[in-house]
Amino acid sequence: MQPAAANTGPGWPASIFDPAGPYAGSITTLSWLLLAMAAGVFLVVLVALWVALFGKHRLQKRLGGTRTIWIGGIIFPVIVLSGLLVYGLSLTRNLAEPVPANAMRVRITGEMWWWRVAYLDARGQPVNIDANELHIPVGQPVVLELESSDVIHSFWVPQLSGKLDMIPGRRNILPIQADRPGTYGGQCAEYCGGPHALMGFVVIAHEPAQYHAIMAARRTPRQQVAGRGEQLFRSTGCAACHRIAGTDANGIAGPDLSHVGSRSSLGAGILPNNRGTLIGWIGDSQSIKPGNRMPAYKMLPAQDLAAIATYLEAQK
Amino acid sequence: MRGWTFLLAGPIVWTVQFFALYGIASIFLTSTTTRVLAGLVSLACLAAIAWLFVHVRRSQPVDDPDAWMHRVSLLGIGVSAVAVFWQSLPALIA
Amino acid sequence: MKSETGFDPALYDRFPTEGERPEGELEELERIWCAPKGWQLLAAVNNNYVGTFYVGTAFLFFVLAGILALVMRVQLALPLQGILPQETYNQFFTMHGTVMMFLFAVPMMEALGVLLLPQMLAARDLPFPRLSAYAFWAYFFGGLCFFASIFFGLAPNGGWFMYPPLTGMAYSPGINADFWLLGIGFIEISAIAGAIEIIVGVLRTRAPGMTLDKMPIYAWAMLVFAAMIVVGFPSIILGTLLLELERAFAWPFFDPTRGGDPMLWQHLFWFFGHPEVYIIFLPASGLVSMMVPTLARTKLVGQNLIVMAFLATGFISFGVWSHHMFTTGMPRLSIAFFSAASMAVSVPAGIQVFSWISTFAVGKPRFNTPTLFALGGLITFVIGGLTGVMVAMVPFDWQAHDSYFIVAHLHYVLIGGMVFPLFAALYYWIPMMSQRALSERLGKWVFWLMFVGMQVTFWPMHILGLMGMPRRVYTYLPGRDWDTINFISTLGAFTIGLGVLLFVIDLARNFRFTPDNDAGNVYGGGTLEWLPTGLYSTRSIPVVKSREPLWDDPDLAKNVEEGRYFLPNSATGLRETIVTSPLRAEPQYLQIMPGPSVWPLLAAIFTAGFFIIMTIQAYKFSFACGILAIVCVLRWLWDTDRLVKEETVDVGAGIRLPTYCTGPSSHGWWATMVLLTVVFMIFVMAMFSFVYLYGVHPRFWTAAADKWSLLAILPAYAAAAGLALLSRHMLAREKTEHWTPGVLFVLAVCALVAGIGIDFWSWLRSGLLPTTSGQGATVYGLLSLESILVFIAVLMAGYISARNGRALIVRPRNNSLDLCVLFTVYAALEGAVTAILTRLFPWV
């Protein structure tokens, strides 16, 4: 089962020309300027070439000679490029300005082929663990600490900022900001082997009040219902790789499932999250995202899959 | 050797400047030290370019091949002057 | 006119000579230069044959990599297709990039150099014909074996950029990555062999009177091209070596948990990888700069500006490697420096474009196939250049990097900058090699299909990238507005494919190889390659008085053909060419050239065997091949460097030149110096790696070195250099015993062995192992490089002794000894620097 035609993962299309915050926005402005520059220069070259080939003899005479090279190939580019360079350098400086020290921080760790998300407190300790999805409040910068636990990945949510690599042994800092609530799709941009093509990410921006409500709800201990789904979750070995807060499921190899029921997507931003896709994913994730690290559970009967799904759906 | 040195003089100055700046920025990262050192190196390289320009300009080519080399090295110095100038901007702006 | 070597330029006035040449000279030239027939053709070393094989093989790889691209485009035509499974797609895109860059673009440019340069310079052949043959065959066998890996599912799948840790043992346990590292690492060696050949060829085998200002612009491009290979390729050779060491023996160069750093690979790779683009573009620009004047029937406008642009590109392109790393989180100021350099490198490109436009304006262009391809290339390249300026702007690159925008950009640059010029060149120069020119009618179809196909394929990819589509994806999800654009792109790709197919049909119908009975100067070019030629190249070697001698001297072709210039015959009865001085091309001596030989071919087969068999881990066979390769190389060298009975000969008009030359003005010395530059650059990159890893993870630098061992190591190396120089000195002395130089040289090499031996011993005693840390890995890496040099010096000692025994080391000077001494002195220096750096850094 491949993701069906209607399933695209939340937050798409995500063009850089539709920025949702200041970091992406200033790059969009630059992009338009660069496109205009490129179009203008291209037009100049085309006109010059046209005159050289088909123009009036008088014009051709003026074009033929080293003066043309001096003007077209040296003076003109030097002026245009000097302007661009100054603008580009000052923009780089502004975008790399340090963000306020009290800004919210989240550590995102690239894994083959999903993302570990840890919301950090002021001391840099993780207070809430999640995967493949990030909730942020609008109107304020959020600092992402980008790391990797295996190979190089690259974090890219085009509507919120440019991309930044996640490199083993290093920590990169990327500020993002959304100024309007919404869902923004992203995808790994550095080739990381296997199903690199299916390593998506979702950022959901909320009004601050709503954001704080969500986070507060996550912090209150949840009533765990012992049921068939919970038993199966343990007996089939799910807990070896997955963690669910407040239970003895403590695996850390795979995505944390404490809030999987509230996630907008499955399989790292590639499937909408509903009962059908959840059952399908548990039963045979290999046919949906070939090469991912989760084995297929085809041997489980349908009612067992459904029971596990019910249990997971309750993990909000 | 002398012929080649002057033919390549401009780009050589750029190369010296570039790798000096790369080294400085690799050691001192984005800091005021980097900016100051980069500025000094850039000034020295701009001065070197200016000296080269005057020096090559003054020398008299004796025949056609010589005049051609002379011209190419002047052009190289000119383009390198632009490149060296651009190379010194980041320390001021970025 | 002033003189460079003491040669009196007034002597040129003796040409063209008067009177008939004696009978039989031409027949003798034909007999001396004839190529072997039948299956022995494989032993041919004439540049016309080797060059044609070379171009053909490179074109084959273009077609093969193109087919991979078409299959990938089918997979991407619609979302979530299953035509290529994930793993196969990952192998396909890795192979497409790798084959296009390493097996098509660079070899094709070297191949054209081998084919065209001797003709343009009116040399009889390149200075080291057997080296060309070796480089070609090594590339041929190595390339085909490498490509075949895809049929067994063993092709590399880590991307053509091979970033570790993905390509390390932990995440790529199969032998796929080894195929890349050993296969490509070895083909780079062949590229370097070609570069040495081209540098010495351009600087030392030009026709007399072809001063630097009169040198064809293509030769300038090739000179800069080859110099860039010499400076740039060592970086990737070292990189592949380090990564293979990490994979095979767990030396942690790139492993951050043990003091390595994955970013080191990116620096090494892109220090080669970005200049690579210009390495491909410059020769193509040289070709266009040769063709445009002919096609427009006028001289090139701003020739000196273009030469300066080539030189500036050659330098500045080495300052842009990190613009592939803007998104890695490097310090802001560092990337700003690279951004500035990326701007600067676009100025020379602009100069070239406007020079061509201006030349077209002066002349009266004919709209034949080469013109169309040149114009199509110009327009396409300009678009690629402009998007290049865009991605040089750091913030824009943060969005565009690793997206389809880059895929579009790089294809515009490479297809516009290299592929279209290449097709123009094929149409333009094939009449030089073939009995018939290619078809103009078909050619126009080929052009329009390829040009339109190119725009339709790649223009939409700009948009895809800005809409968030990353590169190197084997599929994509629907509903992202990418579907239609991808479909259009696929249609375009097949249009290009159709164009290339038509070209192949045109080739099959019209290309008939011939070294002497060719279609000739169809387009009316003015440079020397359009002189009438046979296998011996031109009958006599003209005195060059302008940039387009054929336009300026209408009698030139006739006079050359009648033997009224230099070397109208074979002066010694052997293959020979005139070696001239580097700046003013004044005749210096007559080089005796080797003839056909099967040894370069065998050496190439065994070298390829050594590397390819090593990937499949059959080490015994692999080392057996390695030894056989060395034997073959020594056997081919054995015939070279011999005296002929005439000390000086008449090369025409009573001008006498020596037949043997030693020391700094010999071509062998020059080639050795270029080779040592390559070795030195590998060493520089290794020192960079050492210092770099210390800078990243100083806490892993724990092992203290035994500084006192320097007191033993440095004298050993000093003795090596001293003894080597002494052996050269003693050879020149009248009274020296027969065996003295050989024995001294062997002693010098013994001292070298002692030096590296003590160095190893002292490090092993310190407890540091290569697997311990980044420090251990880089220290032993540097020691390994020195060991390779010492190993070569040991081979040299054996070779020199054997030649000494056979009285081939002649007094007072001998090239074989000279060059081995040169190498040994260098090895001693490198060894000394290694010993000092590893012990005194960073505790000075």
UniProtKB/TrEMBL annotation, chain A:
Bilayer disposition of the protein: Multi-pass membrane protein
Q: Which domain of life is it from?
A: Bacteria
Residue ranges of domain Cytochrome oxidase subunit II copper A binding in the record: 101-217
**Signal peptide feature range:** none
Q: Which GO terms describe its biological process?
A: ATP synthesis coupled electron transport
Q: Which GO terms describe its molecular function?
A: copper ion binding; cytochrome-c oxidase activity; heme binding; oxidoreductase activity
Sorted alphabetically, the keyword list is: Copper, Electron transport, Heme, Iron, Membrane, Metal-binding, Respiratory chain, Translocase, Transmembrane, Transmembrane helix, Transport
* InterPro entries per record: CcO_II, CcO_II-like_C, Copper_CuA, Cupredoxin, CuRO_CcO_Caa3_II, Cyt_c-like_dom, Cyt_c-like_dom_sf, Cyt_c_oxidase_su2
**Annotated TM spans:** 32-55, 67-89
Instruction: Report the EC number(s), separated by commas if there are several.
Output: 7.1.1.9
Record's GO cellular component, any one?
membrane
Subcellular location per UniProt equals:
Membrane
Name a Pfam family for this protein. Answer: Cytochrom_C
**Catalytically driven reaction(s):** 4 Fe(II)-[cytochrome c] + O2 + 8 H(+)(in) = 4 Fe(III)-[cytochrome c] + 2 H2O + 4 H(+)(out)
Q: Which residues form the Cytochrome c domain?
A: 224-316
Q: What does this protein do?
A: Subunits I and II form the functional core of the enzyme complex. Electrons originating in cytochrome c are transferred via heme a and Cu(A) to the binuclear center formed by heme a3 and Cu(B).
PANTHER family, A to Z: CYTOCHROME C OXIDASE SUBUNIT 2, CYTOCHROME C OXIDASE, SUBUNIT II
Protein family: Belongs to the cytochrome c oxidase subunit 2 family.
Instruction: Output this protein's name.
Output: cytochrome-c oxidase
Can you name the source organism? Sphingomonas xinjiangensis
Identify the taxonomic lineage of the organism of origin. Answer: Bacteria, Pseudomonadati, Pseudomonadota, Alphaproteobacteria, Sphingomonadales
UniProtKB/TrEMBL annotation, chain B:
Q: Which residues cross the membrane?
A: 6-29, 36-54, 74-93
Q: Which UniProt keywords apply?
A: Membrane, Transmembrane, Transmembrane helix
Protein's name in the database: Uncharacterized protein
Q: What domain of life does the UniProt record list for this protein's source?
A: Bacteria
UniProtKB/TrEMBL annotation, chain C:
Indicate the principal place this protein occupies in or around the cell: membrane
Keyword entries, A-Z? Cell membrane, Copper, Electron transport, Heme, Iron, Membrane, Metal-binding, Respiratory chain, Transmembrane, Transmembrane helix, Transport
- What topology does the record note for this protein and the membrane? Multi-pass membrane protein
Segments traversing the membrane: 49-72, 92-117, 137-159, 179-205, 217-243, 263-288, 300-321, 333-360, 372-394, 406-430, 442-464, 484-505, 598-615, 621-638, 674-696, 708-727, 739-758, 778-799, 819-841
Q: Which InterPro entries match?
A: Cyt_c_oxase-like_su1_dom (IPR023616), Cyt_c_oxase-like_su1_sf (IPR036927), Cyt_C_Oxase_1 (IPR000883), Cyt_c_Oxase_su1_BS (IPR023615)
Extract the SUPFAM superfamilies matched here: Cytochrome c oxidase subunit I-like (SSF81442)
- What terms describe the molecular function in GO for this protein? cytochrome-c oxidase activity; heme binding; metal ion binding
> Is the keyword Manganese in the record?
no
Q: Which GO terms describe its biological process?
A: aerobic respiration; electron transport coupled proton transport; respiratory electron transport chain
Give the protein's recorded name: Cytochrome c oxidase subunit I+III
